[in-house]
Amino acid sequence: MSAAARSGRVRMWDRLAASDPGLLRLTAGLRTVTAIALTLAVLAVLRVPVSQLVAGAIAAMVATFAIREKQWGPQAVTLALGLPMALASVTLGALLNRWAVVGDVFFVVLIFCAVYGRRFGDRGTALGLIGFQVYFLSLFVGATPAGLPALYGVIGVAFVCSAVARFVLLPQTPAGTLDRLRRAFRARLAQLLATQVELLDAGPDDVEKVLEELRTGTARLHETALMIQGRLEDGTSDPAVARLLQRRIADAEIAAERLGLLLLTARSAERTDTLTLHLPGAPLPSGGELPVRDEATAALRRDLKALRVLMLRPAGEASGTALAQVRNRLLGYREEENLPEAAPAVQDVFRGLGEAARAAMGLRVALEGPQDESDDSPATARSREELDAEDAAIEISEESEPQEAEPAGLKRPTTRAAVQVAVGSSLAIAGGELLSSQRWYWAVLTCWIVFINTASTGEILVKGYRRLLGTVLGVVAGIGLAGLVGHHTWTAFALVLVFIFVMFYTAPLSYTLMSFFVTAMLGLLYTLLNTYSTSVLVLRIEETALGAACGVIAAALVLPVHTDRRTNDLLVAALNRLAEVTRGAVDQLSGGTGGDLVEQARELDQALADLRAATQPLTHPITPLRSRRDTARYVVALLETCAYHGRSLAATAELLPTHPSIAADPRLRGACGRIVHNIEAIAAHVADPRSAEEIETGPSIASMLEPGSLRTPRYGRVTDRVLRHLQRLDEAVSGLARPLGVAGGPAQPRR
């Protein structure tokens, strides 16, 4: 293969890895399609009727996508337990279908148990899903007691083919998934660097568009970092390796985000607020003026591109004198004497570039092992020594965090959801049978689905709306496809496989798209079962609308969890995590011990991700409350700003034991007291609006320390950076108080 072809293949693979981190969506789609195709092939050899082909396809799909464990052993156990569950479910479906009332009551009980089973983890969720979906299958194909032996064989074939697809043809190990996620992180980091180059060159008419791309790239990088952190425990055999990877990923993410902020500042007349990167629609300060075209900016453009090349270069090609010279030049910017003559803001960008190069080198060493050191410059050698010292200092804490007590009874989320979905399904059954005595189960299916992965009334409303929209569009497509396919059985099955793959590939991106492909696929299945008609697909729209409405009604009236309450709870959790990270980081920077700061920062990121997901009903375009939507976006953006500064403080504090250039400064503890107090005051006010807690206002963080500390930092630029993060964090926390209605007062004396 030529070098050009190999390079093109690598670039294509990097783009795919960046768009689908870990290739999780691609693998899920291919595995499901493979399981269905194998099932259809085996059943075709056995010459079973079309109705059993449809049943086998559905059973294979359920057996494949229901299992979520990451390790092979638990997956095999769940799949083995799922087969008797499926056989029992289809048996009851065939037997009870003749007695409407008894069958309906059992269906509701089954739904309750399936949702309640989520409290037992991935296995309970999978078995509940298999039980529900196979019961639905029996209704869809009209199973009868006489046809049960044949259905047993079909379902058995489907489960065996699912196992072959999972464990033989498309195996996915935790270590392999983690490796692909790491490649995706590197690819997304390279994409972000490319956007930063565009920002440097963007004219006044293009700068807002590039700024939005910068926000998107930063958010996607953070998303991939969270995905990696969630799979480190399963994907690595050594806890020390997992902790090292977690640290290096965090370092690279922070360095890339900081580099973007410094570039924004270089383009403006004043220092850019971190909020610019996190608030959609926030303009670039000072109109985004073009930088002066001089040697320094030309060198900056060159070095940004060089860093991107180094990040993307495969391990086997990441050596050579030319590449070593580039790496040495970039790392040299960490030394003051190597900075080019330029404006202070531009010099800051070069410093940020040096830190990003150091983070990139640390990431490459962590991912690929020791590198060739023969061409190292003194600056590169010092960076390697720092990284080695950090690696040696990493220790795994054996202390277990106290587990929060889980709510009991109806307050437990799984119990509440089970009761809600049971009530909603009862309403859906009653209303669905009024619409159609044959297709009523579509309303129940929709009611069930809108409760999956939702926790508040607002989330259920938005999910129901998206499913209805996708169903309407899918019906239109299904009508056209049914006319084109006619009675060509295998053409229809081929299209079904295509739709199933696209359904799984698009599911995490757009629930509307997923619903569209599901409905279009069902139109083809109805054609295969000779039950297709335009009225049937229109009835599906009606049943879908009814099921979504029943779900919303049940969520709103039965043990409701209002969106405001859920977002407030998650906001308090995020604020508490922010206070922990800030307190721990500053305590360590002041000479104390801050605990496991990397893990605390991870918990903060996860709490913020949960909050961001919960606010989607408030920020959705269809929401009529525009001011409320803007407030929710502003609060989340401010919290993301706070989280960035908190992560940066934690990362700097982690360097303290190994870097001679960073020394503890006891003055920082007093400066941090006001910030932590204000975070806790805001959390108290959100938890209880009657709280009398007030935030404290006063002089800047720098002025609270010794006079002149910013002009002549006692410990150099690192202390200066810590003060900047604290100052920005103080400003962002005070900014949070305004939209949340927390009163302020003068600062109190603190020790």
UniProtKB/TrEMBL annotation:
This is Putative membrane protein YccC. It is a multi-pass membrane protein. The keyword Membrane applies. It is found in: Cell membrane. Its main location: membrane. One of its GO terms (cellular component) is plasma membrane. The keyword Chloroplast does not apply. The chain crosses the membrane at residues 21-44, 50-67, 76-93, 99-117, 124-144, 150-170, 441-461, 468-484, 490-507, 514-532, 544-561. InterPro entries: Memb_transporter_dom. Residues 428-553 form the Integral membrane bound transporter domain. It comes from the Bacteria. Belongs to the YccS/YhfK family. Residues 367-388 are annotated as: Disordered. Keywords: Cell membrane, Membrane, Transmembrane, Transmembrane helix.
